[in-house]
Target: Nucleoside deoxyribosyltransferase
Amino acid sequence: MLSMNELIQQLQDIKEASSEVTKVPGAKTIYLGAGWFSEQQIDTLIASYKALNNNPTISYVHVPLLNQFEGQAFDENGDFEPDFKWAVATYNADITAIQNSDVTLGVITAGNEDSGTAFELGYANALGRPTVAFYDGDWVANPINLMPAIGPSSYVRSTDELATFDFMSIATRIYDGKII
Model:
């Protein structure tokens, strides 16, 4: 599994590589809620970030991992043990970023969902902001919880779809998979 420093570097490299993508006038800002606590979550985060940065309807993608308090990213397998000050500052920064974004995208990984991502989608929804979920994985074998299934305004099922999804005009799409 990648270290946090390696993951952060990969995400920064993706952003730099996509800097020449032509964006449409009025392109949206995105808050990207996604876990990074397992190999599956990391792979999906990287693929999602790449797809979003190459989507012409998106001007900026906010990734909480790239904006941790004092640059201290939590790593379950690392030396950094977050304290209350870090937790409060990180929480408040994430809330502010959701409030400042046009759309919140939550990456929901089948069988490996992140509770923070579910909260972020719910918070954005409570603000009346558009939310989109990227449901990644086998949802027949791993049904999704009803809250992240019903809450989002729309959803996508692949990074190819994420790269071409029109975030300027989000069409309502109701989840039709298995729920629990």
Remarks:
- The longest strand covers residues 103-109.
- DSSP finds six helices and five strands in the chain.
- Strands lie at 28-33, 58-62, 103-109, 131-136, 154-156.
